[in-house]
Amino acid sequence: MPGDTLRLGLIGDNIRASRSPLLHRIAGEMLGIPTVYDSLIPAELGRDFDAVFADCATTRAGINVTYPYKEVAARKVTVDDPLVRGIGAVNTVLFAADRAKGHNTDFTGFKAAHARVRGAVAPGRVLMIGTGGVGRAVAFGLAGLGATALRLVDRDRAKAETLAAELRAAAPAMMVEVAGDAEAAARGCDGLINCTPLGMVGYPGTPLPRAAMAGAAWAFDAVYTPEDTQFLTDAAAEGLQIISGWELYFYQGVHASRLFTGRSLDEDALRARLRKD
C-alpha cells in the first residue's frame, strides 16, 4: 500500500561493505516507497541461516541472499522458472503468506552487464574460476549469451563436475570441461572470470596471475567491494576489456528491486546516484 514501509534485507557472511542496502534505499526513495534494508549476518546475530531465514519469512517482504547461502536458499523456496531451478541457486526471495518464491537476478544481471560492456559480441571461449552460487548463475548466463566453450576450475572438483554435467544437459552447444589448474586452463581463452571470494574485502588475492591473462580479450570479476580488484587491475594491465563486479551488483539490484516492488526504475538516474554516494 502507498506509504507502507517495504522491509527487506540481505543475508550473507562478510557483508558489512555491501552496497546493496544503499541501492535498495535509493530505489525506494526514487519510487516513493519507504524502504528498510538490513544486513543480516548469521554469526553476528548468534543464529544459523535457517533461523534467520525463518524470521525474515514473517517480518519482511523479501530478501537478497549472498555468499555462502545461495544454494542453501534454493532448497528452501519454490522456484517457478525452470532455468533458475537448473541453476540451483537463488539470490532473491519474495515472501508471501503461503510460500517463499526464489529468483536469480545474478543470472539476468550478468547477462545485462556483459551486454552493457561488450554489446552483442559473444563471450567466445571462457575460463571461470569458482562454481558456487554466483558461478552457477554466471555459467548459465554464458550459455544464454552463446559462449562456445567453458572451462571450470574449483578447489572442490566434485562441485565443478556437477555443474559441468548440468550445463552439458542444458546447453549442449557449449563445450564444457573441468580443469584442475587455472593457469593452464586460461590458455586459448577469450574470457576470464573470477567467481571466487578472492579479492573482496577480507579475502585478499587473486585466483589467476597476471602472466596467465596474456592473449585473452575480456575479464569479469564477480567481486565488487572493492571494485578495482587485483584480478581486474591485472587484466586491464594486460589490455583486456573489463566488466567489473559493480555492473553485476547494479543490474542484479535493479532486477531485484523490480521483483520487490513490481515497478521499474530510471536506471540512468539510479546509476548516477550510486556513483555519487
From TrEMBL:
Keywords: Amino-acid biosynthesis, Aromatic amino acid biosynthesis, Oxidoreductase. It holds the Pfam family Shikimate_dh_N. GO terms for biological process: aromatic amino acid family biosynthetic process; chorismate biosynthetic process; shikimate metabolic process. Its EC number is 1.1.1.-. GO terms for molecular function: shikimate 3-dehydrogenase (NADP+) activity. Residues 10-93 form the Shikimate dehydrogenase substrate binding N-terminal domain. It is an enzyme of class 1 (oxidoreductase). Pathway: Metabolic intermediate biosynthesis; chorismate biosynthesis; chorismate from D-erythrose 4-phosphate and phosphoenolpyruvate: step 4/7. This is Shikimate dehydrogenase. It comes from Limimaricola soesokkakensis. The gene is aroE_2.
